[in-house]
Amino acid sequence: MSEISLFEQMQNLISDDMLASIQRNTREFSRLMAYYRCALMEIETKFNVLNEEFSLQHDRNPISSIKGRLKSLPSIQEKLRRKNLPLSISSIEENLNDVAGVRVVCSFAEDVTTLAEALLKQDDIALIERKDYIAHPKANGYRSLHLIVSVPIFLENEKRIMKVEIQLRTIAMDFWASLEHQLRYKKDFAFTDDMARELTECARISAELDERMDALRKRIELE
Ligand code: GTP
Ligand code: MG
Asked: For the CA atoms of 181, 182, 186, 191, what is the dihedral angle to 10 degrees?
């Protein structure tokens, strides 16, 4: 019996038209993801430049880490389905703000504000949405500054405007959010009210830690 590849089996099952449409969509999806990767690079570079300049001026790094990520295809599909939105390439670009995401972890709380303002001042960046969960933490205690911005990417023959979600937070906020995420998504485990209260209390302690570290930094930098 001759071996027949999966591709050939699929070809036998679906029409030429449908196959061509799948191939076209796959190509378009890869292209869109490449654009988002370019947008991530632009935003990451902007923060690296700000970090460089700030460290020359102030003799310390305001950024502890910068991490970019692209949403996976399964997560994109899940979100579109959940929100009852069409599953198409144009729908991804129109409706999702967080296909490209950058997390900027800062040393001190004041650095979050300084960096966000410095980025938003740049004339190629447009602010689409701002959620300040630092001034207004979520009920569970989650703190971070979320920005949805648009940034241009320059291709061979065109300029494209891409959306990027930026999360700015301190090391303490990141520590809490990472552990809370791990605990919340622990498989087959029911989260009790008591545990939720304990997590919120930990968030309060982490906020106090940020305040005290920032106060200490001010005393040292004013010396
Ligand atoms: P999504 O549809 O889930 O993206 O919600 P949204 O569009 O209302 O966005 P929001 O700005 O509230 O949150 C977006 C992202 O922030 C999430 O995908 C998480 O990465 C992070 N986030 C928000 N809330 C929490 C939280 O309570 N805990 C943790 N660990 N992360 C959070
Ligand atoms: Mg999201």
From this structure: -50
* Averaged pLDDT for residues 70-91: 94
Q: Which pTM was predicted?
A: 0.91
Measuring from atom 11 of ligand 1, which residue has the nearest CA? 146
The residues placing their C-beta within 5 Å of ligand 2, an ion, are 98
Give the pLDDT confidence of 3-48 residue by residue, as tens digits. 677 777 766 777 778 778 888 888 999 999 999 999 999 999 999 9
- Spatial CB neighbours of 155, under 8 Å, sequence gap ≥ 6: 38
- Cα of 142 to ligand 1 centre, how many Å? 9
- Across the chain, what does the average pLDDT equal? 92
Q: Is 67 in the pocket of ligand 1 (CB under 6 A)?
A: no
**Which residue's C-alpha comes closest to atom 8 of ligand 1?**
131
Atom of ligand 1 nearest to the CA of 181: 30
How many Å lie between the centroid of ligand 1 and the Cα of residue 53? 30
Decide if pLDDT at 1 tops 60.
Answer: no
Per-residue exposure over 99-118, b if at least 16 CB sit within 10 Å of its own CB, e if not: bbbbbbbbbbbebbbebbeb
Q: Are 66 and 48 in contact (CB under 8 A)?
A: yes
